[in-house]
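Appendix B. One record, verbatim.
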Amino acid sequence: MASLRSSSSSFTQHCKYDVFLSFRGEDTRSVFISNLDGFLRGKGINTFMDKKLPIGEEIPSKLLEALESSRISIIVFFKNYASSTWCLDELVKIFECRKKGQFVLPIFYEINSSVVRKQKKKFGKALVKHEQKFNMNKVQIWRVALKEAGNLCGRHYKKGNPQYQFIEEIFEEISPFVGKMKGDYSLLH
């Protein structure tokens, strides 16, 4: 998936984390995200995952710093992702970091990437609700970020498939990139 790997060496030289995990906590934290985080950490990959940050507040500067100082962002899209303005703001920031060289891997968890790209189903409904509460320019920025994310090649998880195998595939996708940036491939195998 070479199209995902646009990087600049100056960006990756100052990274504190290998992987920033972006997700809507209520949807996937207790099962998929905790399994993914544990697996990656077990393989020597330094991950950042928010640990119950306050809901409804501005994204804390510490979270933004962690995002900016990560080599890779893994975004886990689930059906209710777009209902969280926090997630949408984080997504916009991820794509700002991508322009500076961060590797971005979207995970479409039990949804199709076209739902994200075209803002269908719960994604579309959530954005319509946001339009009633927020400035239209802000919502348009979220729409553009969702479209951009849906256009990226990513991984698709379908309900009923072995989750462990899927997590191994994610590891295989990112490990050469992390090893290359660290300059030591042997750490990851």
